[in-house]
Amino acid sequence: MRIFNMSFYYKFIKTNDKILALMAILVLVQIFFIHSARRDYARQINLENIKPEHFRIQALLSENLMSVCSYESPQFIKGLNKKAKNFGINVTISTNTLLEIDGISFKKIYLVSKDILNPDLLYSTDGLIMSLNGKCYGLI
Question: Where are the domains of the chain?
Answer without folding.
Answer: 6-139
